[in-house]
Amino acid sequence: MRARATSPQSTPLAALVDLTGRTAIVTGGAMGIGAGIARRLHEAGANVVVADLDEAAAEATAGELVGVRPHTAVAVHADVGDEESVQAMVAAAVAAFGSLNILVNNAGIYPMTPITGLDAAAFRHVLDVNLTGVFMCTKAAAARMVAQGGGGRIVNITSIDALHPSMVGLAHYDASKHGAWGFTKNAALELAQHEIWVNAVAPGGIATPGAALTDEASRKAFEAMIPMRRLGDPDDIGRAVLFLASDLASYMTGSQIVVDGGRLLN
Known about the structure:
alpha/beta; 8 helices; 7 strands; 14% strand; globular
């Protein structure tokens, strides 16, 4: 994934977005935002490792991708909060496809708990998944990318809560996402010498099976705060990740793209 020998102006658009021959891991890739990301990377030609705690759901998503293009996706059971599991995930990607070129740190949790009802164990668990997991996956993937040469792309899924709190009950989540954004910038600085570009996508409200908006009234109230007047779709995030994972973003590292329908404007 090194810089192309031809001038930027002479590279066709189709070539800039072509991920053929590259292998991507998407953590939390079985459903929701992760599945939306996996589908777009796969459509662009990448081999995709759908990594998730829910192995059955991961198998279903990988099976959908294989149905489109055989032998180009696998499911891997992965716990991003466990270092051995993370190492096994990277090893599985290399065993299946021979290399690792793209990592998308998407796995995350957001249990709603006010600070007064939040205990230390629950706080640490959110940080273990949302922040320490990003660190461990990045460390393992970067080591492989450095060893094989050719650079790479790492995209961290943060949140608009990395920039501004969205609601009461997410103090632990917000702390983890502020940390993930800070980690993104420092990892970009450190890994640039290896031509590994590290960026982030910060989603706003996205319509997923795990979304906290449980009734129509809550959904409409939330949408009223969004200038575009709708929740995002997982594919909205998939498109942004594809941009950062491709050569369209050849001169970007340490950046964060906000995809929130304008929510932060309010």
